[in-house]
Amino acid sequence: MREYELTFDDHEPIGVPLLAVPSDGAIYVDLRIEAVAQGVLATSKISADAIGECTRCLDPVTFDIDETFQELFLYQVDYRQKPKGKEIEVGDEDELLEMEGDFINLDGPIRDALVLNLPVNPLCSEDCEGLCPTCGVKWALLPEDHAHGAADIRWAGLTDWKGPNS
Ligand SMILES: [Zn+2]
Ligand SMILES: [Zn+2]
């Protein structure tokens, strides 16, 4: 068994359109590699910060990613000929990854761990009320009775009135 602590901070942005780990955002990977009969078992904890915008009010949003994954990489040779080490339960072999010679490619598993649990519609807070559609100011910053006159035609005649002293 071997353990690695890796940090990647120079990569393409990884995420969904509204929320992503920026290209210089650190991705921390705690990795444990174990030899098993069929190949190599990789167990990993991944953490990173995705940043983006609240879909309702456009305020900046930071989302903590903390995920784990486990992947079995099969030896390219037919391991069933000479099993050694403990054999672990595997599911559908078609879905398993294969080693590439002495290498395992963790690009896909790391990417999936980062992306698959990101919210598609990130919010600054669960109860964010968003923006007033007319003036674009956050509802949270506006008085409770904030309104625009457009819907109220009864006052339209006052638009040009300058006040009692004019
Ligand atoms: Zn918001
Ligand atoms: Zn408004």
Molecular structure report:
The protein has one domain (2-126). A hairpin with a 2-residue loop joins strand 2 and strand 3. Strands 1, 2, 3, 4, 5, 6 and 7 form a 7-stranded mixed beta sheet that branches. The protein has one helix spanning 107-115; strands at residues 2-8, 14-16, 19-21, 27-36, 39-53, 60-74, 97-98. Helices cover 5% and strands 33% of the residues. With 166 residues, it is mainly β. The structure holds zinc ion (2 copies).
Describe the structure using short key phrases.
166 residues, mainly beta, seven-stranded mixed beta sheet, 1 helix, 7 strands, 5% helix, rod-shaped, binds zinc ion
Determine the fraction of residues in helical runs and give it as a percent range: under 10%
Ligands bound to this protein structure: zinc ion
Euclidean distance between termini CA atoms? 87 Å
Mean pLDDT over all positions: 86
What kind of sheet is the major sheet? 7 strands, mixed
CA radius of gyration is 27 Å
Q: Please indicate the percent range of residues in DSSP E strands (runs of 2 or more).
A: 25-35%
**Count of beta strands:** 7
Please tally the helical runs, counting DSSP H or I stretches of 4 or more residues. 1
Characterize this entry briefly:
The protein has one helix spanning 107-115; strands at residues 2-8, 14-16, 19-21, 27-36, 39-53, 60-74, 97-98. It has 166 residues and is mainly beta.
Topology readout:
Layout: E1 2-8, E2 14-16, E3 19-21, E4 27-36, E5 39-53, E6 60-74, E7 97-98, H1 107-115
Parallel strand pairs: 6-7
Antiparallel strand pairs: 1-4, 2-3, 3-5, 4-5, 5-6
Bound molecules: zinc ion (2 copies).
